[in-house]
Amino acid sequence: MSAHSETGIEGTYAPQPGAAPLPRMVRAQAWLETRTQLRNGEQLLLTVIIPTLLLVLFSAVDIVDTGAGSRVDFLAPGILALAILSTAFTGQAIATGFERRYGVLKRLGASPLPRWGLMTAKTCAVVVIEALQVLLLTVVALALGWSPHGNPATVLLLLLLGTAAFSGLGLLMAGTLKAEATLAGANLVFILLLVGGGVIVPLEKFPHAAQSVLQLLPISALSDGLRDVLRHGAGVPWDDLGVLAVWAVVGLGAAARFFKWE
C-alpha cells in the first residue's frame, strides 16, 4: 500500500466520481436530442419533407389564389412559419409525450442533469432543427424565384418568439395528456392551422367574422408578420409580435405549472 493511500491524501484515485459540469451535460443532451430527431423518419417527414413539398407544389401550380404578385413571395413566409410549427409544437409534443409515457423523462429527471437543464437541451435541439429547416426552405424558395425583403433581425425575432410560443404549447400538451391523445391532438392542430392559419390560404379568403379570430392564432401572427417583412419590406410588425409574446408567456407559463414528468 502506498504512502498516499495510508495517509488518505486526496487525489490518489482517478477519475474522481461526480457529475460533469452543467454546460457540458446540457450540450451532450442537446446533441443527443438533435441526433434522435434527425434519425426519426416520421419527424423528418413532418418537419422537412412536407413543408418543402407544399412550397414547391403551391408555388408551381395555381391551386390557391394568393392574390397579386408572385405565388412564392406569398407562400415562402407562410411555409417558414409552418416549419416552426411542425418542429417546435407538433414534433416536440409527440416526442416528449411518448418519452413521458415510456418513463424516459422520469429517468432523466433523476439524473444529475436538472429538469430545467433537460428542457434547455430540448429547446436547443429544436432551434438547431429549425435552423436547418429555414436554410433548406430558403434555398428552395430562392430557386423558385423568391425575392425576400426586410430586416433579417426582425425576421429572427419573429422566428424566436414563434418558437417560444409553439414550444410552450407543445410541452403543455405533452405534459398533461396521454401520449396517444398528444399524437392525435398535435397532428390535428397541425392540419387545422395549416388550413386556417394564413399559411397557404390568405386570411382575406375567410369570412370577416372568422378573420378576427384567426388573426389571434400564433401561426397567423407568425406567418403574417413574416409576410409583412419579407414580402412588403415592412418595419417591425408590433401587433404580430404582441400576439406571439402573449402566446409564449401563456404557453410556457402553463407548461411550467402543469407539466407532469410521469
Automatic annotation (TrEMBL):
It is found in: Membrane. It holds the Pfam family ABC2_membrane_3. Residues 1-20 are annotated as: Disordered. The chain crosses the membrane at residues 44-64, 76-98, 119-147, 153-174, 181-203, 241-259. PROSITE patterns: ABC_TM2. InterPro entries: ABC2_TM, ABC2_TM_bact-type, ABC_2_transport, Nod_factor_ABC_transporter. Signal peptide: none annotated. Residues 38-262 form the ABC transmembrane type-2 domain. It comes from the Bacteria. Its main location: membrane. Keywords: Antibiotic resistance, Membrane, Transmembrane, Transmembrane helix. It is a multi-pass membrane protein. This is ABC transporter permease.
